[in-house]
Write a structure and sequence with these properties.
Glutaredoxin; 5 strands; 4 helices; 120 residues
């Protein structure tokens, strides 16, 4: 399950690396494609075992986050490794396979992400 972060929590998470990699979904309340992206990411979470934390951030309530990243459209997904380094950014609605590949790229439990057939 994805945990919501407010504006301050996003910056705290970015400034203080944790021992786990993480996945961030940025969305807005009225964005229908964001709701689809959220559902697809939830299915990825349900279908796998990952050592990755999953977060969401509503940009309607976090204008400084939008400004910090230069976000002009949503949904936007970002992954960070356990050192807190950004690994990948995907704009717009993507397939479950793309979201899965993002997670596998920072997941420390599954091994080499290139070893799985992701369906694309």
């Amino acid at each position: 399950m994805m945990q919501p972060l407010d504006e301050a929590a996003v910056f705290t998470r970015l400034d203080k690396p944790s021992p786990r990699a993480f996945f961030l979904l940025f969305y807005t309340t009225q964005c229908s494609q964001c709701k689809i992206a959220h559902a697809r990411i939830e299915r990825v979470i349900q279908n796998g075992t990952f050592e990755v934390d999953f977060f969401t951030c509503n940009l309607d309530d976090a204008p400084k986050v939008s400004e910090h990243f230069g976000i002009r459209s949503v949904p936007v997904c970002m992954t960070y490794n356990k050192k807190g380094e950004q690994q990948r950014v995907e704009y717009a609605l993507k397939s479950e396979a793309v979201y899965e590949s993002m997670v596998l790229g920072v997941n420390t439990q599954k091994g080499d992400p290139k070893s799985r057939l992701l369906g694309f």
